């Protein structure tokens, strides 16, 4: 009995994201954009979500991060558990230290006049003591490789540097899950490589990654892939298995 319950605890701690029968419509009377989606992601896994424009990728990750239903109510059925916390019942500020999201356009995530202030800002909102803020900001700048630009105005940085700053602001809260919504798509090869190398470091450190990337620049990082089409996961599995069925990918207009 004891052995079984210990096993259950171990299994639960491995599952950091659990989605159960998730459906979402932007309006009650409209066709669901997500249809009965169920999956789990374990701690330290890197999941790539691939799908054509309009397949529901962004809607799905907004549900994972709690942006829906907290910001936009729509019509959400089923439930999402982030490290065991039901997103419906957990306030966004609390969810943001469990799951962070890096968007396609870093400009919407950058708010303060210097890089360093920008990183500290998120932590100040969480009432973290000043000394702890300084340590976290320094740790994250080092990890992402932006210490040398800490006094710069983020608005004057290149697109790639801005995306690194946006990623750093998310990392400052030390979430165990990070979601990238096409964060590589506006970047040139070299800038994307810098983000990908941070993704690799995060993965090695046990962070769970969910990556939406229609450019497939981050392909090397993924362990497994979900193919999303019209709001449904039409195929899921280890990366190698998904990629080897070229006919299926072509049939569904997913071209590498
Ligand atoms: N705010 C919104 N209101 C109504 N419909 C929306 C809204 N945002 C997205 N949609 C619709 O939901 C579907 C999925 O969109 P989205 O999740 O953005 O897909 P993807 O990220 O895969 O391109 C699309 O048909 C899109 O038009
Ligand atoms: Mg999208």
Ordered list of secondary-structure elements with their pairings:
Layout lengths: L1 H13 E11 L8 E9 L3 E5 L6 H9 L1 H4 L4 E8 L2 E2 L5 H4 L3 E4 L12 H11 L4 H15 L14 H13 L5 E5 L7 H16 L3 E5 L11 E6 L2 E7 H6 L1 H6 L5
Parallel strand pairs: 3-8, 3-9, 6-7, 7-8
Antiparallel strand pairs: 1-2, 1-4, 4-5, 9-10
Helix pairs in contact: 5-6, 5-7, 6-7, 7-8
Structure description:
- This protein is α/β, with parallel strands linked by helices.
- The protein has a single domain (44-66, 92-251), classed as Rossmann fold, CATH 3.40.50.
- 38% of the residues lie in helices and 24% in strands.
- It contains 10 helices and 10 strands.
- Strands 6-7-8-3-9-10 form a 6-stranded mixed beta sheet, with helices on both faces.
- A hairpin with an 8-residue loop joins strand 1 and strand 2.
- Helix 7 (159-171) runs parallel beside helix 8 (189-204).
- The protein is globular, with a radius of gyration of 18 Å.
- The N and C termini lie far apart (49 Å).
- The model has no long low-confidence stretch (mean pLDDT 93).
- Magnesium ion is lined by residues 57-58.
Q: What's the number of extended β-strand segments?
A: 10
CATH architecture: 3-Layer(aba) Sandwich
Taken together, the total number of domains comes to: 1
User: What is the arithmetic mean of pLDDT?
Assistant: 93
Distance between the termini: 49 Å
Low-confidence stretches: none
Total helical segments:
10
Order of helices and strands: HEEEHHEEHEHHHEHEEEHH
Which structural category do the helix and sheet elements fall into?
alpha/beta
């Amino acid at each position: 009995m004891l052995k079984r319950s210990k096993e259950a605890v171990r299994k639960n701690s491995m599952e950091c994201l659990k989605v159960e029968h998730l459906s979402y419509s932007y309006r009650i009377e409209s066709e669901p954009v997500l249809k009965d989606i169920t999956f789990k992601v374990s701690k330290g896994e890197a999941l790539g979500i691939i799908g054509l424009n309009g397949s529901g990728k962004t809607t799905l990750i907004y549900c994972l991060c709690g942006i829906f239903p907290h910001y936009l109510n729509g019509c959400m059925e089923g439930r999402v558990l982030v490290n065991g916390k039901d997103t419906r019942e957990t306030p966004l500020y609390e969810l943001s230290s469990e799951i962070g999201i890096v968007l396609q356009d870093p400009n919407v995530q950058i708010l303060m006049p210097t890089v360093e202030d920008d990183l500290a800002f998120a932590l100040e909102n969480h009432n973290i003591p000043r000394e702890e803020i300084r340590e976290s900001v320094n740790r994250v700048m080092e990890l992402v490789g932006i210490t040398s630009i800490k006094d710069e105005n983020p608005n004057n940085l290149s697109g790639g540097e801005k995306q690194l700053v946006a990623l750093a602001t998310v990392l400052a809260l030390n979430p165990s899950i990070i979601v990238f919504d096409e964060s590589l798509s506006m970047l040139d090869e070299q800038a994307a490589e810098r983000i990908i190398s941070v993704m690799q470091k995060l993965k090695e450190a046990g962070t769970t990654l969910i990556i939406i990337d229609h450019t497939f620049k981050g392909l090397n990082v993924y362990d497994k892939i979900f193919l999303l089409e019209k709001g449904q996961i039409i195929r899921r599995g280890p990366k190698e298995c998904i990629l080897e069925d070229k006919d299926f990918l072509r049939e569904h207009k997913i071209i590498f």
